[in-house]
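Objective 1.3, modelling of assemblies. Example input:
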Amino acid sequence: MCDDAQLRDTVLVSSQQFSVLTDMLFRFLTEPKEVERFLSQLTDFATMNKISLGPLKNIVNSILLVPSGALKRNLSSEQVRADFIALGLSEEKAVYFAQQWNVNSPTLTRLAVGHTLMINQLIDMEWKFGVTAGSSELKKVGSIFLQLKLVVKKGSQMENVHIELTLPQFYSFLHEMERVKTSLESFS
Amino acid sequence: ALNPLIQIVKKDVKRDWPQNQALGNTACDLLPMCNAFQPSRAFSPLPFLQLVSALHNLTRHVVYHSLMTAEEILSLFPENFHQNLKNLLTKIILENISSWRNEAQASQISLPRLVDMDWRVDIKTSSDSISRMAVPTCLLQLKIQEDVALCGSSPVVSALTVELSKETLDTMLEGLGRIRDQLSAVANK
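Predicted structure (tokens):
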């Protein structure tokens, strides 16, 4: 998992600097889209502390593996601390990291759950309803129709599905969906 | 020209006509009907086709204009038409008019129609990114039938399975609730 040799480089970083680095890391993990921001923060950190960027990036890469492994294995903060110490980090740094892990793990867990595989995820639903006035078979109709457009994510593409429902179908659909909601709620 | 033919086959017509769903839209729908009648009488196909075609036009006219009373239908026949046959035909039409209307409505052009739906609720317990969780999720299967008019006698039904998270379902129910409210508002006007 972690490269011992690279983690041992962290001795080059003081406890205080390590804390700053840890904070930056967790801020990035909880906002994974802010890649640019994270990289510029790293560069600033390297310049300010007179550490070359190369080794710093190696350290960061190694440390980044820890939270994802901890999520996969459902580790407690105590176990994270123990892991870090086993890998050669000082007690102080390990404790600080474990504390930050404790604070941030709910957010990180929620993000990981959000990335879990979903089949044909329903993204959006648009609807309209109206009255059929007439047709080629019947001069005057006056029946109500309901049209739904479902936006479904198939793989990486969005697919639009158009469906038409009669009124009785709509009411039974609504009834079934309310049953689903009750079922989902009883499991939360 | 149709009268002699109609007189002879009127019994067959009364029995078979309503069941043959006399609202086929295209000429090719009439042929199977003709073939259904043919075995019972030794007629040349052309006059028979004319007979069936005439009956078909009559029923389409009645359904299109929603003629619901005997007087309206009787007035369609020419003056010297055979009295008993006229009454018999009118009676048959009146008996079947509402089911023909319903069928016309059911088979009109439309977007793909929902024909069935099934659902199940799963609990996700683990994944490649997180080893322990308990996240309920819903799988919804919609059976959708393409436009009946395009498919003829063998409609294409496709199944779409969609996954919904609890949040998505809540949003969807909100939308469906709004539809229901608007429908009641329209119905109450």
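The beta strands of chain A are 121-132, 143-154, 157-165.
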